[in-house]
Design goal:
The complex is a heterodimer.
Chain A lengths: L16 E12 L3 E13 L4 E5 L6 H8 L7 E6 L2 E2 L5 H8 L2 E4 L13 H11 L5 H14 L4 H4 L9 H13 L5 E5 L7 H18 L2 E6 L2 H7 L2 E6 L2 E7 H6 L4 H21 L37 H5 L5 E4 L2 E3 L10 H8 L1
Parallel strand pairs in A: 3-8, 3-9, 6-7, 7-8
Antiparallel strand pairs in A: 1-2, 1-4, 4-5, 9-10, 10-12, 11-12
Helix pairs in contact in A: 3-4, 3-6, 4-6, 6-7
Chain B lengths: L18 E12 L2 E13 L4 E5 L6 H9 L7 E9 L2 E2 L5 H7 L4 E4 L3 H4 L6 H13 L3 H14 L5 H4 L9 H13 L5 E5 L7 H18 L2 E6 L2 H4 L5 E6 L2 E7 H6 L4 H9 L39 H5 L5 E2 L6 E2 L8 H13 L2 H4 L4
Parallel strand pairs in B: 3-8, 3-9, 6-7, 7-8
Antiparallel strand pairs in B: 1-2, 1-4, 4-5, 9-10, 10-12, 11-12
């Protein structure tokens, strides 16, 4: 992987979100830089759910935040409905952001503890001066109902009175108040127990269908991402490894890192599937050479995954692999993808 | 810290269980009332076995492991029942007696390695501390042992890293160090409380494999506490499922996954997203939320959320009883897969009982 390139981008006129060559860097001590996201490109069609998976430190959350300009990307472009957000001034960006909402991992810390639920939920409307107070409360009632909470019994309470799953419902209701088009879900179920996780995932699916939402679903959990996503992006150390629709990616992972991730989570999944009478594909193969995340301050040359990659060759240290289409709508950034000719052979063939 | 040699010999243990817990209760007195976190738990653990303890937040699994370990505060806690570890009765042991056992005979791995390690002490000293204290090793011996231990948990270049501080390691490496500390004196029982919850999937798989390998090499007993049924598969010999402060099902791992009897176990398994599911598959949910540990409901504690629920469940608490499959126990009046269970489920579905419809509080 861990490559650049834009082969995976589709028709720009149809995409609701299009991220082009986005780079996010943070200052590090000694004048160095943390290369959190390095030249990442992808797009999302309206009504689609794009899953972004990777381990901690891979830049998946930073990518999600870069779309919302929290903070603004160091370079690159982010298009929302054809408008380049990086070119907007602060006021324009503020008004566009009403269409882009976010749900965070820890719902308790994302709800201000001293305010009532009604206050928290109508805040977006109050900021934008939408309707009268009565209209706002009416909408709060509707949205809380949508997330299966009873307005009369919760509106006057404060966040600490609720469980973490209930707080996540409130966060979802709040995100929906302004009728957004896109919701960035940053690890929305990672802090939850499985039974509550299932409730929230089903709820997100319902809301998506009912309000025609487009979701960016960021998670480290492959099984969760598989269950919600149409298309999946695998990230490693600030770069994209593989982009494909969910079924293809999980059935035929082509990037060695994707397979390593799947191998790590498949053991448990297989036993569970047996209990549920389903088959889980077999991903066994070479083991990873290491599992440490390389430094994002001085990332490895060439392919950033090469220090862990069981298939790494000399070329991987020299030349960064570029995203290329392996099969229809299945893109991988690897010199030696699984079950496919290496990039050198592919180049020869095309010549 | 005077070096002492007092590791009790327990060779006579091989013929009886290492750990016997009988009707253990742990209640906390709080300003709002009494929280009955662990409410009557009994089980035995043989030497060299791995027991998975599975439950959701609030089920009492962590308090249970802390009660076994004797880590609860001296005040405000009501304790009942027995914890027999070899020939020692842990629940009545004094702190001094416990100190001789902690690290030497019983060790614990905590969820968050960053807070389990002392941030201002070099890791070398943290690994050698118990070796010097319990085994009265010389400095040089302890250091050599520490290097061997760190190597066996997969820490690269242990000789150089002895002088490092915890913050210089990644979370996965810190957890390896915590494991090295825990196994240093060759404990007979290792309690691992959510050892991989904060770690990435690839690292998590390695840490669990490591615990498994050490368990086999050292013939330890392990209690693996987790909220994730997935990680106990293939790693635990037996699994106990906890709900509402009680054990609701216990079985050898393959039996539990194949022939679970308790509707809660079934619901828990079904609600986990799987890799084999197609995209946008609707997940099974467990309606409602866990019961309040200050006032456990009458009857079966899962009744309010159970798709099999019948009037008997609310009236009478089901005891933990033996299933047809060996070493399998469950607490349910209308078990999964039994004729009465099937009938109960069908009746409920026909009536459209709320608990079965997936509605949410």
């Amino acid at each position: 992987m861990a490559g650049s390139g834009t082969a995976q981008l589709r028709d720009p006129s149809e995409a609701i979100i299009r991220v082009e060559n986005v780079v996010v860097e943070f200052p590090a001590p000694g004048g160095k830089k943390v290369h959190a996201v390095s030249d990442v490109s992808f797009d999302v069609y309206p009504g689609e759910t794009l899953g972004i998976v990777g381990e901690s430190g891979c830049g998946k959350s930073t990518t999600g935040r870069a779309i919302l300009h929290l903070p603004k990307p160091t370079s690159g472009k982010v298009f929302f409905e054809g408008v380049d957000l990086t070119s907007l001034d602060a006021e324009q960006l503020r008004s566009v952001r009403t269409k882009l909402q976010v749900i965070f991992q820890d719902p308790i810390s994302s709800l201000y503890p001293r305010r009532t639920i009604a206050d928290l939920i109508i805040e977006p409307l109050a900021i934008w001066n939408v309707g009268t107070q009565a209209d706002r409360l009416e909408r709060a009632r509707l949205m809380l109902g949508e997330v299966n909470m009873d307005y009369d019994s919760v509106s006057w309470r404060r966040p600490y009175e609720f469980s973490i799953g209930q707080c996540q419902r409130i966060s979802i209701a709040r995100a929906l108040m302004l009728n957004p088009k896109v919701i960035v879900c940053d690890e929305p179920v990672s802090a939850l127990d499985v039974s509550v996780q299932a409730q929230i995932l089903n709820l997100l699916e319902d809301m998506k269908r009912r309000y025609g939402l487009t979701l960016l679903f960021i998670s480290h959990d492959l099984a969760v991402v598989k269950n919600v996503s149409d298309r999946v992006v695998v990230m490693f150390l600030g770069k994209l490894c593989e982009v494909a629709d969910a079924e293809t990616l999980y059935a035929q992972p082509s990037h060695p890192y994707t397979r390593a991730l799947l191998m790590a989570s498949v053991i448990s999944s297989r036993a569970m599937s047996r209990a549920g009478g389903q088959a889980t594909p077999d991903f066994s193969g070479e083991e990873e050479a290491a599992t440490e995340m390389p430094s994002s301050i001085s990332p490895p040359s060439g392919c950033r995954y090469r220090t862990r990659c069981p298939r790494a060759q000399a070329i991987c240290a020299v030349q960064e692999p570029v995203m290329r289409e392996l099969k229809r709508d299945h893109y991988v950034a690897c010199h030696f993808p699984l079950g496919a000719p290496s990039s050198a052979e592919a180049a020869d063939a095309s010549n | 810290m005077s070096p002492k040699r007092h590791v009790r010999e327990m060779d006579d243990l091989d013929d009886k269980p290492l750990l016997q817990v009988e009707n253990l209760k742990t209640y906390f007195q709080t300003g709002h009332g009494i929280v009955k976190s662990v409410d009557g738990v009994s089980f035995t653990l043989e030497r060299g076995r791995t027991l998975g303890l599975v439950g959701e937040s609030g089920s009492g699994k962590t308090v249970l492991s802390q009660s076994i370990m004797g880590l609860l505060p001296p005040r405000g806690v009501v304790r009942e029942g027995r914890v027999q570890f070899g020939d020692v009765e842990l629940s009545s042991a004094s702190v001094n007696e416990l100190r001789d056992l902690w690290g030497a005979q019983i060790s614990m791995i905590f969820q968050d390695p960053a807070t389990a390690l002392n941030p201002v002490v070099r890791i070398g000293r943290q690994v050698t501390e118990s070796l010097r204290y319990h085994l009265a090793m010389s400095k040089a011996d302890a250091k050599a042992t520490a290097v061997a231990l760190l190597r066996s948990v997969g820490l690269p270049e242990p000789e150089q890293r002895l002088r490092w501080y915890p913050h210089q390691f990644s979370g996965g490496m810190q957890q390896r160090i915590v494991i090295a500390v825990a196994i240093a004196c060759g404990p007979k029982l290792l309690l691992a409380d959510e050892p991989t919850t904060g770690l990435d999937v690839t690292v998590s798989a390695q840490i669990l494999d490591l615990i498994n390998r050490l368990q086999q090499e050292r013939y330890m007993s392990v209690i693996l506490v987790t909220h994730d049924l997935g990680i106990v598969t293939g790693r635990a010999d037996d699994v106990m499922v906890m709900y509402g402060g009680k054990i609701v099902e216990k079985a050898p791992t393959p039996v539990l996954f194949r022939d679970m009897r308790m509707p809660y176990t079934e619901a828990l398994l079904r609600s986990a997203p799987r890799l084999a599911n197609p995209a946008h598959s609707r997940l099974h949910t467990i309606p409602g939320s866990p019961p309040n540990p200050m006032e456990w409901p009458h009857g079966c504690r899962f009744a309010a959320r159970c798709p099999y629920v019948q009037p008997k469940c609310v009236a009478e608490e089901p005891p933990l009883r033996d299933a047809d499959t060996p070493q399998h126990q469950y607490a349910c009046w209308f078990p999964v897969g039994s004729p009465e269970g099937r009938r109960a489920l069908e009746e409920n579905q026909a009536k459209g009982v709320p608990a079965a419809t997936g509605s949410v509080v």
